[in-house]
Each structure stands twice: as structure tokens, then as C-alpha cells.
Amino acid sequence: MQDSDIHDIAAALRKARLERLPIDPPKKTWPSLDEHSAFEVQRAGVEIAVKEHGDRLIGYKLGNIAKVMQDAFSLDKPDYGFLLASSFEYEGTSLKLDQFIAPFVELEPAFVLKGRLKGPNITVVDVINAVDYVIPAIEIIDSRVKDWAIDLPDTLADNGSTGAVILGGTPRQLTELNLSDTRGFLRFNGRDVIDGNTKDVLGNPLSAVAWLVNRLATYNVELLPGHIILPGSCLQAVPMNEPGHWSCTFEGFGSVEFDVA
User: Fold this and answer.
1) Contact 13, 144 (CB under 8 A)
2) Whose CA is closest to 25, among 211, 139, 112, 154?
3) How much is the pLDDT for 64?
4) Tens digit of pLDDT for each residue in 127-177?
5) What is the pLDDT of residue 68?
6) Measured between alpha carbons, how far is residue 190 from residues 3, 24, 97, 201, 236 in Å?
7) How many CA atoms lie within 13 A of 55 on its CB side?
8) Order of strands, sheet of 244-250, starting from the edge strand that comes earlier in the sequence
9) What pLDDT score does 78 carry?
10) Where are the alpha helices (DSSP H) in 73-204?
11) Sign of torsion, CA 25 29 32 33?
12) In angstroms, rounded to a whole number, what is the distance separating the alpha carbons of residues 195 and 75?
């Protein structure tokens, strides 16, 4: 794929993000778009955000790693993307529905790094040694593609369908948690909506981080101290389509709460 096409796709997706107007799947408009060129599209989009709009790269995300997520969005492979500071919201604040297109709520642990990670051949032990602490997090995914009609290149080009991230305020050391078996719950307006378990994130979210680091090595990407890493949701994403109060909890770990207006 030519550089001009890569920048055209990145510009179209950024325009859709800013205007909240979804577009046709990029792969439909640009049939030669594949997984590798889609990553270059997301890299170009991040470059525009950072260099031209003053944003800041603060980490990376993995998505669709759990089977329930792959089934929900008809994907058989994980997606991944960059995390920008502009996408982070404060816990306890109110989000507006009209700042999104078709959002979904996810629950996952967020890892904050104290060491560098660069693949290939990164193991779970390497990840454990590089993690400073873990905090509960909400990721609100959103798509700039009409009706979420995405294939893997579409969501990769769209920066892994990032929307917003809300971090909780209960940091924990890895030794305080059992991330191979921690239950998570989503509640909306006091009503239980769905539950899941961190074991569904590749057996353990630490394994998912190792997978992400090794995948990003293909593109010469290194994770740095201070970066925030989202390993993927432990439960099926839930549509966020009406005003109300969300309470999102990891058993024995902590909660994140926010309102939608």
C-alpha cells in the first residue's frame, strides 16, 4: 500500500473520530489494506495527533483477546493500538454520550510499567519484572466504522477501536492479586449486567501483555517505563447507549465508577 493511501485512511478515520460520523470499512474503500498496512495507518494517525495536535503517547492496548469478545465482534484475532493521553477521563466524572459513536464498556486491569519491554521472545516472567503496579480500569471502545462492520484491518487502522479509558484509584502490587482467577462485574444503575473472570484473558492478563509486546516487536515498538498497558477485557463488552451510572468492580481488587449523561 502506498504512503499516500495510508495517510488518506488515517485522515479519514481522524475526521470521523472528531466529527462523530462513522465511515464505511476502510478495507472496503481500500481493498489492499491488510494487517500490516493497517498498523501503519494507526501509527500515522497517532503521529498526526501528537505532532499536530499536542497529544501524548502514554501506552498501548490489546483487545478482542477473550473468546467472548471475538465472538461478539466476529473477529478471530486480537487487535491492538496506541493509548493517547487525550482519551483518558477521570473517575467519578460524567461522560456525554454524544462524544462517542457507538460505545461499549469493558473492564480490565491496567498495568503500569517500571521497566522496558521489547520483543521478540518476551515471557510472562519478563512482564512480571517490568510491572510496577496494577489498577482497575474501564475501557470504552468505540468504532469510526459504520455499524461496527469491522474486519481485523479495519479495527487496527482505527487504532484498535479506542474510545476512552478511566483508571481506578486502588493500585495493587502483583503479589497482592491472583490475576489468573479474579472475577469482574459490570453494574448499570444498580443492576447486575454481566460478569467475567481475568482467566479468560489468555489464561492470565500477564500472558496477554507478553503476547502484545511480542506482536509489537514486528513494528519495532518498545514499551517504556511509565507506560500504561491494557491487556483486554475479562468480559463481553456492554453497549453504553443511555444515561445512567456505571459501577465496574474486580472482586478483592477495586472498583471504577462513572456517569453517562
Assistant:
1) yes
2) 154
3) 76
4) 999 999 999 999 999 999 999 999 999 999 999 999 999 999 999 999 999
5) 65
6) 49, 37, 19, 26, 19
7) 18
8) 94-95, 254-260, 244-250, 183-188, 191-197
9) 87
10) 124-130, 152-157
11) negative
12) 21
Taking residue 248's Cβ as centre, other Cβ atoms within 10 Å add up to 26
Locate 78 and state its grid cell: 486480537
* CB 230 within 8 Å of CB 131: no
How far is residue 248's CA from residue 177's CA, in Å, rounded to a whole number? Answer: 17
Rounded Cα gap, residues 219 and 240, in angstroms: 33
Which residue, chain included where needed, has cell 489498577?
A: 135
Other beta carbons within 10 Å of 125: 10
Helix (H, G, I), strand (E, B) or coil at 149: coil
- Burial class of residue 252 in the structure, from the number of CB atoms within 10 Å of its CB (0-12 exposed, 13-18 middle, 19+ buried): exposed
Give CA separation, 204 vs 22, 109, 151, in Å: 34, 11, 26
Contact indicator for 211, 62 with CB cutoff of 8 Å: yes
- Percent pLDDT > 70 in the chain is 96
Distance CA 222, CA 59 (A): 10
135, three cell numbers: 489498577
Q: What is the rounded distance in angstroms from the CA atom of residue 127 to the CA atom of residue 25? A: 35
Q: Which of 174, 171, 165 is nearest to 135 (CA)?
A: 171
Could you tell me which of 72, 101, 67, 65 has the C-alpha nearest to residue 237?
72
What's the length of the chain?
261
Extract the residue ranges of the chain whose pLDDT is less than 50.
none
